[in-house]
Amino acid sequence: GLTYLVFPGAVHTRFEHSLGVYRLAGEAMNNLQKYQGNELGIDRIDVQTVKLAGLLHDIGHGPFSHLFEHEFLPRVNPGSTWSHEHMSALLLDSIVDKHSIDIEPDYLKVIKEMIVASSDVSTAEGVKEKRFLYDIVANGRNGIDVDKFDYIDRDCRACGIGSNFQHWRLLEGMRVMGDEICYPAKDYLSIHKLFTTRADLHRTVYTHAKVKAVELMLVDALVEANEYLGISLHADDPEDFWKLDDTIVKSIETAPNDELKKAKEIIQRIRRRELYKFCNQYSVPKDKLDHFKNITAQDIVCSQITSKVLLKEEDVAVSNVKIDLTRGKDNPLERFLMLVPPCYSFTCTLCVIFQVLTSCLFLL
């Protein structure tokens, strides 16, 4: 995304992250194979499919990662259900067909199911054999997966955020019982740190006021350029989608077309650090979360007290940010199993529920 403009060390890419997830997925599989390989029937194909799912799980991200999916597309296609997980699966099919890659259709199907395992289109719940394999890269059951292990460590280090989450403890301790991955009871604090560190990253890095200001500006620029460049149309076809990347900004900047004048001006403001001004934020009380509607620019304008300067909707941008421990108001630690000697499992319930909804106001 655009975090590097505020945290200069955050220049790592999805490619590096994908390599990291590939490596950690391999470590997780090697560990399970070492201790339970015969019991679980883990073979070379299982190891290979999980590692490939880790390597390819994020190829469907658009320009500037989640900004494209959660900010830009909903603006130009209201009600859009587009997801990068689904696009990753479509791109994988396209790559296999285009390059005539020799892979068994059943293995390809499993890799795609592993990629979308934590998304709304997941079919993992219907899997009858080795269901635990679908929880290693993208865990839709409790959110504990190697994808988080990698980006939490990588982002904390790059942004200078202190973290004492130790993913290796979970990799070494994971075992399978009842077709579900479990962890030693002594590691419950490591799992707690996984979720709280993720929440800290969202609060202090990903939703930093300056980061959000830059994101709002870039989305405005992309929306202005969309009608002329047809950016959103590329999201419908994997054959076109792969051509979209962060260089779209440079393409807009250097284009001679008058139709892109407004988009260019916004990008130039970003270059000059003339960012939207952060004005205020409001944290929604916990007891009002269920009935709170997202604040809009219209709400801000309509609530003005008469003064010499009256804001218009085009002068205001509002960012509604929700931060939780991956499962909304639910306790994520209620959905994972812990191992206690000699060898039985129980569900852990030790966790403080954390959910914050904040609305931030910016002046354009």
Automatic annotation (TrEMBL):
One of the protein's GO biological processes: dGTP catabolic process
Family annotation (InterPro entries) = dGTPase-like, HD/PDEase_dom, HD_assoc_2, HD_domain
**Pfam families per the record?**
HD, HD_assoc_2
Boundaries of each HD domain copy?
Answer: 14-152
Q: Which GO terms describe its cellular component?
A: nucleus
Q: Which SMART domains match?
A: HDc
**CDD domains in UniProt:** HDc (cd00077)
Top-rank taxon, per record: Eukaryota
| A single MF term (Gene Ontology) | dGTPase activity
The record's PANTHER family line, in alphabetical order, gives: DEOXYNUCLEOSIDE TRIPHOSPHATE TRIPHOSPHOHYDROLASE, DEOXYNUCLEOSIDE TRIPHOSPHATE TRIPHOSPHOHYDROLASE SAMHD1
What name is this protein filed under?
Answer: HD domain-containing protein
Species: Aegilops tauschii subsp. strangulata (Goatgrass)
Lineage in the entry?
Eukaryota, Viridiplantae, Streptophyta, Embryophyta, Tracheophyta
